[in-house]
Amino acid sequence: MTKRWKRLEAADEKVKQLHEVLKINTALCSILVQRGIDDFDKSKTYFRPQLNTLHDPYLMKDMDKAVKRVEQAFHQKEKILVFGDYDVDGTTSVACMYQFLCKIYEPALLEFYIPHRYREGYGISKMGIDYAAENNFTLIISLDCGIKSVDLVAYAAILGIDFIVCDHHLPDIVVPAAVAILNPKQQDCNYPFKDLCGCGVGFKLITALAQQYGIDDEEYFCYLDLVATAIAADIVPITGENRTLAYYGLERINSHPSPGIKALIELGGIQKKLSINNVVFVIAPRVNAAGRMDDAKKAVQLFIERDYNRALEIATLLHNDNSDRKEADSTITEEALIEIKSNQFLQHSKSTVVYKEHWHKGVVGIVASRLIESYYRPTVVLTKSGDVAAGSARSVVGFNLYEAIHACREYLLGYGGHFAAAGLSLLPENVDAFRLKFEEVVNSTIDPQLLIPEIVIDTAISFADIKPTFYNIIQQMEPFGPDNMRPVFIATNVSETGYSKIAKEQHIRFVLKQGNITLTGIGFNMAEKFNLLQTKKQLDIVFTIDENEWNGETTLQLKMIDLKLTEDNVPV
Prior knowledge:
Largest sheet: 5 strands, parallel
Strand content: 15-25%
Mean pLDDT: 94
Low-confidence stretches: none
Number of domains: 3
CATH class of the largest domain: Alpha Beta
Shape: globular
Radius of gyration: 25 Å
CATH architecture of the largest domain: Alpha-Beta Complex
Strand order of the largest sheet: 3-2-4-5-6
């Protein structure tokens, strides 16, 4: 697949000033300036984040009301239900809050509740509220959900149940009539950092309660491994407080994780220091698989379990769910690709809508993302759910998927989501009409450039720059994630040495030279580019830098992303 290369720029004067202060490679200074780190103090905060710089939780709107309502519940011996969504953010939020409340309140008066993905759906459910009423709960603390549950919170109030809503999703104009709403995205909330995940918002309530009751920091900092897991899995910006929480959460994951996280690490086969990337691709899928394939309650049970052997048993259940999930999404992806290849309309469309009644609804969102890897365009994957067709949609960077689906609402029973992802349902007999309408909308509104994947390049470097000291500074830029991605470099006028080769029919083992410096690298799934090496012409390459361990020796290597002939590369 052809890709667009986009080079980022940084103000020369700011780069020069930062270089004078930090005395590090100017290419690294350029990246820092691009990310808003343009003086010594910002650099110090970035490279050496401190937990004591976290914002006062009482800056968040309604925090005082939330703490007061929890205090009232303690005083009156009320039963409290900790309610959260079935994904990683939701289950980690519930595990943190439930464990902390058990430390300061009577565990017999506490329970947690995770809605079943298929019986109850996303967020606060009527079944959950009815369960609370039947079991005499008078306070529900909702985490990672609730900001849009206006009717359900009102229903709970009729039953004598109060709500404290802790959420991070964008509020509508009308918000629930809860006792307290903790959400930094509320327009009239003055909390300085707006991009907390659901677990992060819950952590701020825990912090406020700890302050109120004079509880030592370590009694809740011990949950930072779970907070970091939520930050990684929920793809929130790794800036500000998220960077600090993720930094110390990763430190805890690598030094003394909770038994549940430790068990997931063992089952994931990770033997080296974990990065955010490991959390996203090894820990998060196993936790999410519980809700996709079965019941997410066991994810919370895993996180709150104190006995390692028991945690390993629960983690094995999640591991098995993930194996089933991988098998399902692999099979469905294969079937969907065959469907596209055999359908002339889909072959020549600027969108993809595929539907099969037997596909597992827990993985259709993943399949949509997989299809975009082969056909880079807005994609909808549908399956049968009861009497309706339902599924998930994923977008390409820069295209407003929600607006496109909204334009097709005449064929839909329901839909919801945001710019990049959405869910929808419709009658099976309307699938073909929806496919045609969706293609019409995408075709008439999408910028053709958006149908070509874009590689964002931070800065140019030469092979002479790539030294252990350079790499060590890159490693200090961890944790990586949105708004702080691992640096992507370009090197120009590079030669192939004649020693590069195809490995396992899919990958390329590169041996490249620039000037008198030779470096090795790996390009996963890049075998189709091998013909460019055989031209013996000068190349421009895009890559990240990592380490290669072989026979007890560690060397730096290039992790190739793309390459072009120098003569064909037009600067962007």
